[in-house]
Design goal:
Elements lengths: L7 H11 L6 H7 L4 H13 L3 E6 L2 E6 L1 H28 L1
Antiparallel strand pairs: 1-2
Helix pairs in contact: 1-4
């Protein structure tokens, strides 16, 4: 059985969704199913692009989705829904 890789857009969307109310790195790693190294890469990239922001809560660092990140996440989900709809029509036509 061949494993199905997630594309970068899906992983970014998952991280943005996890961080809506603020999340620590451990929560992001587990919920997005990433290793620590990959999580660090994505978080740095998302921060640099203004899609999430870092804040401190006591000694913890929390990551929160910015308005720009919310907009991107919503656009990605809309595109994904449209692609799923097209795919279901294609498979229905082939049956």
């Amino acid at each position: 059985m061949k494993s199905k890789k997630r594309d970068m857009g899906l992983i970014v969307s998952e991280i943005l969704n996890i961080c809506i109310k603020g999340a620590g790195k451990t929560r992001i790693i587990y919920q997005a199913n990433l290793n620590s190294s990959k999580a660090n890469q994505y978080l740095c990239n998302l921060i640099q692009n203004g899609l999430i922001e870092e804040s401190t809560s006591g000694s913890r660092i929390l990551y929160k989705t910015t308005p720009k990140g919310m907009e991107l996440m919503q656009k990605y989900q809309q595109l994904q829904n449209e692609m799923d709809e097209i795919q279901s029509r294609i498979f229905a036509a082939e049956a």
